[in-house]
């Protein structure tokens, strides 16, 4: 393993004073107005058959009156360069066949960017964010940044360009601070394949030796529960909003309640995606993987209604699937570039004899009577993707091969059975506080019995023991 430097961004929520809050609010509006003027300038140049560069956009914004751009010169420069990059990206996507438009929508709010050594500085116990010479500044307490790789505090000298962003759902400002960190880079030659899904977000498979395949299945029911709770709560509020008059007091209260639910869900899903990618990264790092291949399911959520390939419940799950963000987190945590591979029929092909079979449920059973192969359905998909990534097509794993499956929960939570058992014991302990109840239960004994997550090997340390009361 060798170390390689990379940049990560820490998100820190900040509390502003009344004056700083109003100043930040007005500055974000001013940044949005500058963006709108830059967009109008670019569209005017296109109508005149000219293609402005990022420096032309920057020169146009700098030519405005000083009162029309109450921001730092570097902040204005970043707005111009960001617009130019957005235009380049839209053109590249259009060449790849995507139906996209160049930036045209008007903005009301835009994050503020502060360059290192010019836009922000630290004095005593405060971080000063500059809006330009002769203008008041935004002061916040110095945030504490902890490096996720070393668990040590990051010195402000290692910070980069800072952004002050407004979270519309949680109704608060946050600082996005990039910093350089060191990551371990694998020097091995292992290949890891990933089968992605809605129920189990990631299933990873890697050859350990000539006869053993390690498979890690990461359960994602926690994320589904978070999304389902959000959908039901927002749906109830939305039905009430539809019966209210716009701008009324009740309408405003319901809108704020909806934003609060969305903000809380956003944070919970972000934590869930980090938990999934962290456990997947542990598998990749422990097996010294240098090549990461993922089954290509990009675009699976498109035109499902027209093709009638999914009902409305499945379409909702596919549209809310955070597969891309999980892949991005995994690539950042492992420093391994992700490849996409066609995964057609990977979960319907027996990895032992290549007999096609459409499984029902979460377990795969081969229809060939001479084979009799059984395994978890997602593990079958990951193993077949692994074979195709190595050999270019589906190849039998061999009669002596062993698939070793580890089933992990993405988030450390108790199951319903564990909660019921714990609640039962706590109620009995409360009743035992009475002397009469204590005499009545004098012959009761508590025995500790572990719960198995399922028939596979479970290495999840979050599964506590179940307390069973027997007489």
Descriptive overview:
This protein has 471 residues and is an alpha+beta fold. The chain has helices spanning 18-47, 54-62, 73-95, 221-242, 249-286, 304-307, 312-319, 323-334, 377-391, 416-431, 435-440, and strands at 2-14, 112-114, 120-123, 126-129, 138-141, 162-167, 172-185, 190-196, 202-207, 212-219, 289-295, 338-341, 363-365, 374-376, 402-409, 445-449, 466-470. The chain has three domains: 2-184, no CATH class; 186-219 and 275-409, Nucleotidyltransferase, domain 5; 416-470, no CATH class. The chain contains eleven helices and 17 strands. A six-stranded mixed beta sheet has the order 12-11-8-9-10-15. A four-stranded antiparallel beta sheet has the order 1-7-6-2. The protein is globular. Mean pLDDT is 84; it is low at 435-471.
Short note summarizing the structure:
By secondary structure, the protein is of the alpha+beta class. 39% of the residues lie in helices and 22% in strands.
């Amino acid at each position: 393993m060798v170390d390689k430097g990379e940049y990560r961004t820490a998100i820190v929520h900040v509390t502003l004073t009344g004056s700083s809050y109003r100043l930040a609010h007005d500055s974000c509006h001013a940044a949005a107005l500058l963006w709108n003027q830059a967009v109008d300038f670019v569209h005017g140049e296109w109508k005149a058959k000219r293609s402005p560069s990022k420096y032309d956009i920057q020169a146009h914004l700098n030519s405005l009156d000083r009162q029309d751009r109450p921001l730092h010169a570097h902040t204005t420069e970043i707005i111009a360069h960001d617009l130019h990059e957005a235009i380049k990206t839209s053109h590249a996507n259009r060449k790849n066949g995507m139906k996209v438009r160049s930036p045209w929508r008007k903005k009301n709010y835009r994050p503020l960017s502060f360059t290192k050594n010019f836009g922000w500085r630290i004095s005593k116990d405060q971080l000063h964010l500059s809006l330009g010479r002769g203008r008041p500044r935004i002061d916040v307490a110095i945030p504490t940044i902890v490096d996720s790789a070393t668990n040590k505090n990051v010195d402000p000298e290692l910070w980069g360009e800072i952004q002050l962003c407004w979270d519309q759902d949680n109704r608060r400002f946050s600082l996005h601070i990039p910093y350089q960190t060191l990551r371990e880079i694998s020097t091995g030659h292992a290949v890891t394949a990933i089968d992605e899904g809605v129920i189990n977000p990631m299933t990873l498979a890697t050859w350990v030796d000539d006869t053993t395949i390690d498979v890690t299945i990461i359960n994602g029911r926690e994320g589904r529960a978070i999304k389902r709770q959000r959908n039901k709560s927002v749906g109830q509020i939305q039905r009430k909003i539809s019966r209210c008059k716009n701008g009324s007091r009740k309408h405003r209260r319901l809108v704020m309640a909806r934003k609060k639910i969305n903000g809380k869900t956003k944070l919970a899903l972000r934590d869930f995606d980090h938990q999934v990618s962290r456990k997947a990264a542990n598998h990749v790092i422990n097996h010294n993987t240098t090549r990461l291949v993922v089954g290509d399911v990009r675009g699976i959520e498109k035109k499902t209604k027209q093709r009638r390939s999914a009902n409305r419940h499945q379409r909702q799950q596919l549209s809310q699937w955070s597969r891309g963000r999980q892949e991005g987190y995994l690539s950042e945590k492992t420093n391994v570039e992700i490849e996409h591979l066609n995964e057609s029929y990977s979960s319907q092909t027996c990895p032992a004899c290549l007999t096609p079979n459409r499984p029902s449920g979460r377990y795969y059973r081969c229809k060939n009577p001479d084979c009799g192969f059984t395994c978890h359905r997602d593990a079958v998909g990951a193993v077949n993707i692994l074979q195709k990534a190595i050999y270019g097509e589906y190849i039998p794993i061999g009669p002596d091969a062993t698939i070793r499956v580890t089933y992990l929960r993405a988030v450390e939570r108790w199951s319903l059975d564990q909660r019921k058992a714990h609640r039962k014991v706590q109620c009995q302990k409360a009743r035992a506080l009475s002397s009469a109840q204590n005499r009545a239960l004098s012959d009761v004994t508590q025995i500790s019995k572990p719960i198995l997550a399922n028939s596979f090997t479970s290495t999840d340390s979050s599964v506590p023991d179940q307390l069973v009361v027997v007489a």
